[in-house]
Amino acid sequence: MERLPGFRDFYPEPLPHNDVWSCDARQYVFDTWRKVAKRYGFREYDGPPLEPLELFTTKSGEEIVGQLYNFTDKGEREVSLRPEMTPTLARMVAAHERNYKKPVKWFAIPQLFRYERQQKGRLREHFQFNADLIGETDPAADAELIALLIDTLRAFGLTAEDFVIRLSSRNAWQDFYKQGGGDTAHEYEFFQIIDKIERATPEESEKKLTALGFSLAAVTAFIESGKPTVELDSILQNLAARGLRDFVKVDYRVIRGLAYYTGVVFEAFDRKGEFRAIAGGGRYNNLIKLISGGKVDLAALGFGMGDVVLVELLKERGRLPKFDSHMDVFVLIEDETLRPLSLKLVADLRAAGYAVEYPLTPAKADKQFKRAQELKVTYTARLDNDAYVRIRHLHTRDEIVAGFADAANHIEKK
Ligand code: HAM
Predict the structure, then answer these.
(1) What CATH number has the domain bearing residue 202?
(2) Do residue 245 and residue 269 come from a single domain?
(3) Which of 316, 350, 369 represents a domain boundary (last residue)?
(4) CA atoms of 147 and 133, how far apart (whole Å)
(5) Per residue, what are the HEC states of 330-354?
(6) Are residues 397 and 297 in the same domain?
């Protein structure tokens, strides 16, 4: 039985095949995301993977709605697997915002589902690090979030030569659109054309823009001017003060596909431009109000970073660490009469926090030792009799004999 297209199997390393993903690498990515988010004072939250369909159809915008994994459940409810986390976050914040001091700084690592055409960097499920800051309109909040995005990528060993944050503003595009005589009804349609401009042919873009009363030449001239708005300038200065200016450039080609963005938007890309976006986000100051039916009005911004492009990039740049089983001790059982006491030793060492392996069934001494080596354990421990344990450090080859109760004091954790 084959797995569904666009879904992944995660195996422990060493990987049996290059068509599967590493569960060790996944854990490393999650740990790094968590570590950096906590450094910035973000708290973890989560929501349900299945939501009412309506949460996404009214809030996310056409593109994502066309990719929904939706169905009618056995209670005749219209439901959908979550394609993104932001509407769920907005719902959760709106429901209990009074319990939390502002600004709220929250992160999550949801698995998301989108029925996309499978291609490099795009699958039908992915894990996405989401970091959002709620209840602050000042651009200082935008800078804080972009700094988190940069530091997250740096925590994986990536540098300003590997990636760049392309910073843009829907406000700037809104002004351009209004000055060009565009009407509000077609504004999102206009944004969608800009969003696709890098992937579409000039003829396609020209045709669509003309239909809205704009020319590709005017749009291109605006993009090329690249002049930061007052708001973008303030973000750039804030980042410069942190020594992060080299990681960011103003780039009006970025406008973001999702419907709810209202102001500053940004995306992280590899410098060579070989991969799809590593991360994307921006301000969505109206979404919480929309989702709460006008009851709660809070400014917000955030970003999402997927694991698919990130791991592909880390692999290509040789930035993924080597993963092994990280076992500390292998308890050798060469004399089966000592098995009960050896099991007690295994249990005591595990209780003391060590990662411990041992032979489940009787086995020859050399086979046991080979297994210990395969597991790359640091120590072997073997009962000499019912009172003493012989502990050997496999790298230094030092060997000591310790009293049974004292064994743990002679073992250092990895
Ligand atoms: P998004 O741009 O749709 O934004 O997704 C963010 C990131 O998730 C992308 O840059 C990409 O790395 C990854 N991603 C998206 N779709 C796929 C896919 N089919 N396969 C693999 N990776 C994918 C959002 O989802 C916003 N909700 C982010 C956000 C949070 N905005 C504010 N707060």
Answers:
(1) 3.30.930.10
(2) yes
(3) 316
(4) 13
(5) EEECCCHHHHHHHHHHHHHHHHCCC
(6) no
Find residue 393's DSSP bridge partners. Answer: 379
Q: Looking at the domain assignment, is residue 123 inside a domain?
A: yes
pLDDT interval class at 33 (50, 70, 90):
very high
Q: Say whether 69 sits in a helix, a strand or coil.
A: coil
CA 5 to chain centre: 21
Mutate to test the pocket of ligand 1, among 26, 84, 93, 152 (most ligand atoms within 8 A of CB): 84
Q: How far is the CA of 128 from the centre of ligand 1 (A)?
A: 7
Whose Cα sits closest to atom 25 in ligand 1?
84
- Which atom of ligand 1 is the closest one to the Cα of 310? 12
Domain interval for residue 367 = 329-410
pLDDT-derived band at 12, boundaries 50, 70, 90: very high
Confidence of residue 288 (pLDDT cuts 50, 70, 90): very high
- What residue owns the CA closest to ligand 1's atom 30? 303
- Pocket lining for ligand 1, CB < 6 angstroms: 84-86, 114, 116, 122-123, 126, 128, 130, 132, 258, 277-281, 302-306, 308-309
Position 371 pLDDT exceeds 90 = yes
Question: Domain for residue 323, yes or no?
Answer: no
Overall number of domains in the chain: 2
Cα separation, 280 vs 167, whole angstroms = 10
- From the number of C-beta atoms within 10 Å of its C-beta (0-12, 13-18, 19+), residue 181 rates as exposed
Identify the pLDDT of residue 204.
95
Q: What percent of the chain has a predicted confidence (pLDDT) above 70?
A: 99
| Residue 322 is assigned to a structural domain of this protein | no
Mark whether 347 and 296 lie in a shared domain: no
Mean pLDDT in residue range 141-165 = 98
Q: Are residues 48 and 157 in the same domain?
A: yes
Q: Over the stretch 58-103, which tens digit does the pLDDT of each residue have?
A: 766 677 888 999 999 999 999 999 999 999 999 999 999 999 999 9
Ligand 1 pocket test, pick from 42, 82, 128, 264 with the greatest ligand atom count within 8 Å of Cβ, gives 128
User: Is 213 in the same domain as 356?
Assistant: no
Ligand 1 center to residue 332 CA distance, Å? 49
Tokens of 367: 């086979």
Q: Is residue 120 part of a domain?
A: yes
Ligand 1 centroid, distance to 205 Cα (angstroms): 24
Nearest to 110 by CA among 147, 134, 83, 133: 83
Q: Is the pLDDT of residue 243 over 90?
A: yes
Q: Which residue's CA is minimally distant from atom 8 of ligand 1?
A: 306
Average of pLDDT values for 383-400? Answer: 94
Compute, in angstroms, the gap from residue 1 CA to the centroid of ligand 1: 30
